[in-house]
Amino acid sequence: MAIPQISGPGGVSQPTQTKRAEPQAKPTSENSPSPAHEQVQEVARQLQRVVEPVAQNLQFSVDGETGKTVIRIVDGVTKEVIRQIPNEEVLAIARAMDRLQGLLLKGKA
Predict the structure, then answer these.
(1) Domain ranges, ordered by start, for the chain
(2) 73: which of 4, 68, 79, 83 fits an S-S bond (Cβ 3.0–4.6 Å)?
(3) How many Å is the Cα radius of gyration of the chain?
(4) Cα 53 to the center of its chain, rounded Å
């Protein structure tokens, strides 16, 4: 099977390779258990310690209800949050979805 040629910078031809779609193994509780909440918290604390000397305005944490990692950029003087990923609205939606999922499971039981 021939590899298609694509003209790169300066008109130089560069071979490209097409990747064949391979089936993705879906994680199961047996082969890749989700990390415990405490482990995720510890990783966030370690990240915070590593970046603190270089980027004091960058904060890593874990949302207590959803378990999602939260990254904040904070103003060094006022301590006001400049940017947060994911933002509060997304976290609120995730919390609401978690509660709805719990209600649905209780309703089926």
Answers:
(1) 36-109
(2) 83
(3) 22
(4) 23
